[in-house]
């Protein structure tokens, strides 16, 4: 999955994924393995978090996270074929649960998860028909099932100009941080970088990345960390009516 323009729409179709998973019975991690992402995941998602992995596919990342100490991960995918295979594969790993679900209509309660991880799922929706509508439904659902202060982490090939406009939710804005990391096996990955991946990259007003990184660099992956606002539950006291204000200035009657 690399480009949206001119892309066949298959990646957005349930039948495409069912077919693919019927043929590929092994495991495959898109873009990055857990090892490359661990510093970022560990920084934003404590191991005690109640986690949701959207569009899990047959990736090994959830298993690797459990082996690294994560306690519960609910995994969902639109393909019943892959969900059945993963339930069977991980029947002896109770920390991992699998359910068939469409990310655009999640069967979970409001605020059920501390963190949501998405590696390549949003990208496949962006390759489908009605991509902007699908993306908006997904972001609405992801925000709904996140706790206040919760984190949605998106790992994608999409640079800020093609991702930020969809991630920004108009109804309730959230803080978005961006991290950039080299694609495994790329020249950038071999050369190494002095910049730790845990250091967020600043974004210009025009959604460019400054001199260090160029947009549409095929050797980069982007990690967007969207943090749901932590609404202060303590509402300010209601304004007193003017008649009440006057009476409250009076001294309390003294007992004789
Ligand atoms: C590019 S693969 C990524 C798989 C895995 N996350 C990984 O990192 O290797 C995209 C996954 O999203 C799933 N998917 C596509 N549309 C979906 C939807 N509307 N709801 C839930 N899962 C979906 C596909 O079945 C597929 O497993």
TrEMBL record:
The keyword Methyltransferase applies. Residues 238-247 have a biased composition (Basic and acidic residues). It holds the Pfam family Methyltransf_11. InterPro entries: Lys/N-term_MeTrsfase_sf (IPR051419), Methyltransf_11 (IPR013216), SAM-dependent_MTases_sf (IPR029063). Keywords: Methyltransferase, Transferase. PANTHER family: METHYLTRANSFERASE TYPE 11 DOMAIN-CONTAINING PROTEIN, SAM-DEPENDENT METHYLTRANSFERASE SUPERFAMILY PROTEIN. This is Methyltransferase type 11 domain-containing protein. The gene is LOC112295730.
């Amino acid at each position: 999955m690399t480009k949206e323009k001119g892309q066949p729409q298959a990646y957005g179709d349930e039948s495409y994924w069912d077919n693919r998973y019927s043929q590929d019975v092994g495991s495959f991690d898109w873009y990055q393995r857990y090892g490359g992402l661990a510093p970022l995941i560990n920084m934003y998602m404590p191991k005690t978090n109640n986690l949701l992995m959207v569009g899990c596919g047959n990736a090994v990342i959830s298993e690797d996270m459990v082996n690294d100490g994560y306690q519960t991960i609910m995994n969902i995918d639109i393909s019943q074929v892959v969900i059945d295979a993963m339930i069977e594969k991980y029947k002896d790993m109770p920390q991992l649960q699998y359910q068939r679900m469409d990310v655009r209509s999640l069967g979970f309660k409001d605020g059920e998860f501390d963190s949501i991880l998405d590696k390549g799922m949003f990208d496949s929706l962006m390759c489908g028909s009605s991509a902007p509508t699908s993306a908006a439904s997904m972001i609405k659902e992801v925000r709904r099932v996140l706790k206040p202060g919760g984190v949605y982490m998106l790992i994608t090939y999409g640079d800020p100009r093609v991702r930020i406009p969809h991630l920004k939710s108009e109804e309730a804005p959230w803080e978005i941080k961006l991290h950039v990391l080299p694609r495994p096996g790329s020249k950038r990955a071999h050369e190494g970088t002095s910049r730790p991946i845990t250091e967020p990259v600043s974004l210009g007003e025009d959604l460019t990345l400054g001199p260090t990184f160029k947009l549409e660099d095929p050797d980069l992956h982007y990690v967007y960390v969207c943090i749901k606002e932590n609404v202060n539950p303590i509402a300010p006291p209601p304004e007193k009516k003017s008649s009440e204000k006057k009476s409250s200035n009076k001294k309390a009657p003294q007992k004789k």
